[in-house]
Amino acid sequence: CGEARVSCMNRITKIIFFACLAPLRDAEASLEQRVLITAEAKNSEGQLAYSEVHEIHEDQSGNPLRARTRYLSPEKKLKAVLTTDFKKGLSANDYVFSDERDGSSHGVEVKEEGYLLWKQAKGKAREEKLIRKSEFRPGDLVVSGQGLFFYLRNHLEKFPRNEKISVKLLIPGRLDFFSFDLGIEEETSSTITFKMRVGSLLLRIFTPSLHFKFEKSAKNLVQYIGPSNLVDESGDLQTVEILYNTDSGIQARRFSEP
Question: Lesser CB count within 10 Å: N end or C end of the chain?
Fold first, then answer.
């Protein structure tokens, strides 16, 4: 009987404990801000290739906590989903990209010793490779997924005007990283455009540049031109122009340093 009473008291204590935690979890969730951004991607022929719906959760200071992007066909059918977790970093972060068309997926996991890149085809074993942080030089900007967008938003004013920075872009689909040069392509009183191109002169022949255009005042990304992370229906890499709906975009905020 004594053991039964002790067991009963333990169950009651657990119930009270979790009941007390529930309001704390609700309060923490209520402090988050939810931001929606929509965009349309057009292919090289000017036709709508797909649309994007970005859902970003931020803390009260405007720092991104997690994000989810849905890629929709012109008929509004789900093509792919990208989920990002910013707990371990802003420019280099954990993310998973899932292609709903063929069941494949790939992603990055940030580890203490480096970055675990992985990919998996439907029905196949997962392939992975660890890129150690020691492979990069001090000053290299390591980027995964949508991290470059958030980095640029946070550095519109302080980005060096007369020099380029070295970017190491993690590409889990290749289980490798590639080196890029990032600099300002054009700046006006109201907008600033960044250009990123592959560092290798030979690869530049085959690799299109990436262009990011921001509104300065609101720090909204308004245009992207470059390769898409979503292959076309034939499974080939496609170059797109993405126009972002600034009416639904993020208002001026400062994100934490990576």
Answer: N
**pLDDT tens digits, one per residue of 185-236:** 999 999 999 999 997 766 666 678 999 999 999 889 999 999 999 999 888 9
Q: What is the pTM of this model?
A: 0.82
Q: Is the CB of residue 166 less than 8 Å from the CB of residue 137?
A: yes
> For the chain, what's the residue count?
258
Cβ 84 vs Cβ 149: under 8 Å: no
Q: 3-46, pLDDT tens digit by residue?
A: 555 455 556 555 544 444 444 444 455 578 998 999 999 999 99
**H-assigned helices in the chain:** 2-30, 147-154
Residue 126 neighbours by CB under 8 Å, 6+ apart: 118, 119, 120
Strands 141-143 and 165-171: parallel
DSSP for residue 34: E
Residue 41: how many other CB atoms lie within 10 Å: 18
Please name which of 215, 214, 242 lies closest in space to residue 227, comparing C-alpha atoms.
242
Look up residue 96 and give its two tokens. Answer: 């998973």
Residue among 132, 189, 142 nearest 170 (CA): 142
Phi, psi dihedrals of residue 251, rounded to the nearest 5°: -80, 170
In the chain, DSSP assigns E strands to 33-42, 48-58, 64-72, 78-85, 94-99, 105-110, 114-120, 127-132, 141-143, 165-171, 176-187, 191-198, 210-215, 221-227, 239-244
On the CB side of 37, how many CA atoms lie within 13 Å of its CA?
A: 18
* Cβ(115)–Cβ(109) below 8 Å: yes
Please state, in angstroms and rounded to a whole number, the distance separating the CA atoms of residues 92 and 107.
12
